[in-house]
């Protein structure tokens, strides 16, 4: 074989190897696009099939640095997210603040901790909780904030507002969650008034599902500030609710659901507060059941519980053993009985959210069709 022939053969082999590398890279890019698309489409089976063929796709990234888990989280696709986590998807939720676009931001809410605004992250509308700069300098606040982030990362349920990421390494500290277009239950009730029993039961079931998840073993999360402002409507058609806004000092992990704890620091909103909280006595997860009862009452009555009292006075009135009066015709006996049970003075008499769900399912089965309730609708 001549030198030129050998050189030519070597060149052809190199070209062939280069082509194989290109084809492999092209296939990789194609499969990256595919798994991102399947995650976007909420196709758990297709995502799982791709991961069975190539586990490395679990952390594939597109040109905007989005992973399948980012896509699933943004859209609230819980089953897809769980599948990706099974395959050890990277859960690094630190967000570069430069990725957050506040150019057209709108204020959603404001409080002593800071503010919540609607902004954009990688082209997607999100809700951003920005902590006050003065609080961002507090070492304990930073510690509590990061603890909250570490806990929120683990919460995934269709009735819990989806955590997307956080800014913890730069100031101001920020929490980023999915943005729900329907607003909060407080505003919805303010506009609609009393809900018919069917709608109220559907809303109550969504809340109970989310809270049952938070209260599940082995680690129980106590919300401590469950109220209409912290219950969000997924869309303007109001067919799905999620529990959200786990404030800095209101999210607690406990090891055993029967343990009781002494309330410390901020104690939540007075109007929906359990009497043991107001009295600064020991409490457990049943404080959330009491708050749920007050929300159920408000949905059916069309006004906040004890609306003729200031919030603090309302909490004191309840702590003395009093309860709001049932007036609405929509308060059918079964719902009245459930509400009364849930706001029992003895927290041990209050049902769990799983028990509440079972009761609500039976109540829903026995409700007439919606058109029978038009006289109670706004």
From TrEMBL:
GO terms for molecular function: ATP binding; protein serine/threonine kinase activity. It is an enzyme of class 2 (transferase). Residues 1-16 have a biased composition (Low complexity). The keyword Cell membrane does not apply. ATP binds at residue 129. Its EC number is 2.7.11.1. Signal peptide: none annotated. InterPro entries: Ankyrin_rpt, Ankyrin_rpt-contain_sf, Kinase-like_dom_sf, Prot_kinase_dom, Protein_kinase_ATP_BS, Ser-Thr/Tyr_kinase_cat_dom, Ser/Thr_kinase_AS, Ser/Thr_Kinases-Pseudokinases. Keywords: ANK repeat, ATP-binding, Kinase, Nucleotide-binding, Repeat, Serine/threonine-protein kinase, Transferase. It catalyses: L-threonyl-[protein] + ATP = O-phospho-L-threonyl-[protein] + ADP + H(+); L-seryl-[protein] + ATP = O-phospho-L-seryl-[protein] + ADP + H(+). Belongs to the protein kinase superfamily. TKL Ser/Thr protein kinase family. PANTHER family: SERINE/THREONINE-PROTEIN KINASE TNNI3K-RELATED, SERINE_THREONINE-PROTEIN KINASE VIK. This is non-specific serine/threonine protein kinase. It comes from Striga hermonthica. The lineage of its organism: Eukaryota, Viridiplantae, Streptophyta, Embryophyta, Tracheophyta.
């Amino acid at each position: 074989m001549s030198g030129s022939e050998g050189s030519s053969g070597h060149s052809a082999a190199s070209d062939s190897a280069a082509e194989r590398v290109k084809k492999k890279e092209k296939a990789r890019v194609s499969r990256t696009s595919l798994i991102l698309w399947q995650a976007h489409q909420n196709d758990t089976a297709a995502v799982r099939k791709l991961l069975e063929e190539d586990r490395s796709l679990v952390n594939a990234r597109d040109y905007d640095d989005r992973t399948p888990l980012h896509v699933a989280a943004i859209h609230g696709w819980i089953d897809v997210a769980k599948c990706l986590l099974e395959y050890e998807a990277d859960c690094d939720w630190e967000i570069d603040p430069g990725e957050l676009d506040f150019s057209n931001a709108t204020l959603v809410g404001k409080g002593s901790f800071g503010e919540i605004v609607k902004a954009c992250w990688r082209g997607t509308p999100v809700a951003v909780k920005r902590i006050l700069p003065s609080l961002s300098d507090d070492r304990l606040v930073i510690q509590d904030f990061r603890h909250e982030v570490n806990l929120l990362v683990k919460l995934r349920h269709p009735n819990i507002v989806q955590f997307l990421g956080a800014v913890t390494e730069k100031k101001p500290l920020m929490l980023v969650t999915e943005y729900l277009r329907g607003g909060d239950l407080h505003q919805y009730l303010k506009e609609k008034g009393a809900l018919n029993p069917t709608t109220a039961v559907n809303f109550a079931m969504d809340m109970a599902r989310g809270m049952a998840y938070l209260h599940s073993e082995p680690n129980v999360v106590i919300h401590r500030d469950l109220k209409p402002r912290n219950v969000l409507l997924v869309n303007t058609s109001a067919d799905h609710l999620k529990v959200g806004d786990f404030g800095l000092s209101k999210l607690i992990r406990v090891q055993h659901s029967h343990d009781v704890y002494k309330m410390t620091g901020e104690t939540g909103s007075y109007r929906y507060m359990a009497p043991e909280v107001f009295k600064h006595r020991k409490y457990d997860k049943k404080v959330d059941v009491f708050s749920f009862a007050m929300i159920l009452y408000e949905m059916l009555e069309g006004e906040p519980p004890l609306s003729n009292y200031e919030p603090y006075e309302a909490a004191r009135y309840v702590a003395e053993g009093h309860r709001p009066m049932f007036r609405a015709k929509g308060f059918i006996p079964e719902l009245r009985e459930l509400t009364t049970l849930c706001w029992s003075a003895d927290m041990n008499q209050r049902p769990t959210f799983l028990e509440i769900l079972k009761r609500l399912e039976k109540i829903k089965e026995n409700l007439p069709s919606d058109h029978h309730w038009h006289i109670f609708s706004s």
